[in-house]
Give the backbone structure.
Amino acid sequence: MITQWFFTHVDRRGGIVIALLVAIAFLVPLSNLLLPETSPLHIPTYLVSLIGKYLTYALLAVALDLVWGFCGILSLGHGAFFALGGYAMGMYLMRQIGPRGVYADPVLPDFMIFLNWKELPWFWYGFDNFWFAALMVVLVPGALAFGFGWLAFRSRVTGVYLSIITQALTYALLLAFFRNDMGFGGNNGLTDFKDILGFNIQAGTTRSMLFAATALFLALAVFVSSFIIRSKLGKVLVGVRDAESRMRFLGYRVDRYKLFVWTISAMMAGIAGALYVPQVGIINPSEFEPANSIEAVIWVAVGGRGTIIGPIIGAVLVNFGKTYFTAAFPEIWLFALGALFIIVTLFLPKGILGLYGSWRTKLADRAARKKDSAPPPVAAENVHLPEPQAAE
Amino acid sequence: MRLNRLLSVFILMLGVCCHIAQSNAQTVDDAKLRPLVQALAGDNFEDTTKAISDLVKTGDPRVSKILDALSAGDLYVAKADKTVFFGKRDGSDYAATDPLTGTKLDPVSRSAAEKIKVNNRLRRDIAAAIGGLTLMSDNITERRSAAEAILKTRDPESIPLLDQAIAVEKDTGVKALMQQAKAAAVLSSDAADDVKIAAITEVSAGNSRDALSLLTPLENVQGPVGEAAKAAIDSINTKLAFWNAIQNVVYGLSLGSVLLLAAIGLAITFGVMGVINMAHGEMVMIGAYTTFVVQQIIRTSAPGMFDYSLLIALPAAFLVSGGIGVVIERGIIRFLYGRPLETLLATWGISLVLQQAIRSWFGASNVQVGNPSWMAGSFDLGLLTLTWSRLWIIVFSLSVFAIVQLVLKKTMLGLRMRAVTQNRRMASSMGIRTPWVDALTFGLGSGIAGIAGVALSQIDNVSPNLGQGYIIDSFMVVVFGGVGNLWGTLVGAMSLGIANKFLEPFAGAVLGKIVVLVLIIMFIQKRPRGLFALKGRAIEA
């Protein structure tokens, strides 16, 4: 029953990825915790955290792909939702420090005492409860996305205009969070965390559990995305992406569809941020930098927009490259990243998965031609979807 | 003729008289001065104080030197004959000089002389007295600074000195300053009410901020003085508020001009090609670096030409940035037409590459771009002090705007560009080679960005990140102003600049900027295509 329900909503590829993610959610912590360090299969803790970080990026990429790949909304501000989720989690972790801070105040975080604040600002209330923080991780980005999207989609702000406005949104938040008076730690952000849910955040066990949680949430996100895409709603979204006006004339309330998927995507990004913060141990305003959001877009583009698993591949590959390059050849990294943007948009409009797809059709073509000289069937995934036209 | 000669004789006489008057005020017979100097070595501090004020009253220029020495502890008195002299330690003796004539005296044994003691109160008196003395100095800057010093200390004792100084002062600026100082001193003295009220009128005519700090303590005084002070404060405050508003407008205009410069090129490329060029900021940055290179060449080969460096840099920056723009368009962007979002990403990639290229080439830190002499310095406008660079930027960006408008309205290229902006397919059908128009438009937009870089190099740090700081603001200008009409860009840039500056005092610079961003996001709701949108019938437009 359940498996049948599952497979009606997920294609074969999605199913494989979900299975893989669930598998590593169990296997990686097991290898880290149970195998001796000498074993070749042992995964050291730092690597667990590193891959965990990549997976949170992958979750952000999946969220971004949901709006860009399937609905044609290029957001240059998804980093804002990611960072807001991160801040919500960071506030919980700050409250968990309790009297163990430098100034040993049981309620106020260190930076507030440093700023000579006497009591907790109202927006910090409730963050000592995990359930409240977890709710905020989803609600704050969701609410911001809903408000922003409601305004933007209703007045039909589309295309590059929307992209620029989302960039302005994250830029405004960047400036705001840099201010000390905002009460989020200014440019130092929130850091020095001790516990999460009572477990030491530095401990290998906690790290492994955070990794497992990340992998499971990513699997969930893949499932939710597949679910949305394969539903009737998903078909409408793709229709909006390819011919927005036509969908509107067919009688669909385009703005509502967009608003729905936009808000869901922002919530996913918030969850990604919330999982990111305990694994890297800090959240500061630089996460709001517009450059970060654009980098997330390139993960999706590299992996293949409009596919469910492409963003995961793209996020992991690009970030692996980033880790490697910034350590080995720091001056080359920006060249490489810049070149990646150009090459992917020029030569790989459908990303790595698109490349793989066209390679497979070519092979199939050749095989078919050998068999008989019948005209080759056009594989559905190789058809280039027309893009929305430029303003004319 | 006759009259002329008469006049010149008169002027000559006047000059002589003044000269005599001034000399009279300055030098006093040694015989008269000597006992006063001797009196400095009095038995107690009161005697010394009296001697100081007596000395000061003579107004002799040598007095300030003596008082300086006294304050520094270089004035000694011989125990035997009580002569006062400048002493300098020289082994077991003091090398002595006469305080009045400056002639060398026989060295005095250290045990035979005594230092004239001063305490802090005396030192303060001496400082004030010296300030008063330099009112009579021949040097105009010394007189000015003396008057300013009194304006700060408001010492009532300096009133007679000021009176003397005002009587002989010929420079109107310094004279006015002295009158201000006198009025300030009168206000802190216990003069009669009507004198004080006159002083209040005098004070409030001068520098408003100084006057405010002078008058505020008087506000709560009972009687006519307090009322006069209150009225004066009110009028000064209105005046200040007025000039504050003017300052906000001027500063806003100059910020707006910067935005305008950065946004014109963006608006052109976006209008014609529907392409957002994320590398636009880097074109600005390259323009600034071109200025740097031009200045380096001038510094090494023709230092005398430095004042013209910007004039040389302008075409150079236009060509460099414009050339790079054409290369980018031909090499990358033309393959992406009809896919504006991909173009956005590709140009972002280009911007990363350009930034890193400049960083590898010139280093990550700021490079030094100099101001030519005609841009340095400032001038006063009413109560405002404006720098010349601020004014030049406004003039410059408005002229760039005018030139671009001319190009768009009066040249063949402009005609074609406007045609393509309005309807690409129709323009193409009429025989316009749209690919060439695209390439030239992109080159023009990038070239203007380069010119903006020359201007920005004068007011901002030139570093590889220069462009990043302006790019979002210029996007906002384009989004706010709308595309296809440069007037929209002008209005957008100026309103954003002025709005920023008016919000700053209430909300702070950062919050002001946030408010402006939020306002634009709200504004887009009302007019999704900006202030000056092109009217058309396309659905997707």
Q: What stands out?
A: Residues 378-392 of chain A have pLDDT under 50 and may be disordered. The CA atoms of residues 293 and 391 of chain A lie 24 Å apart.
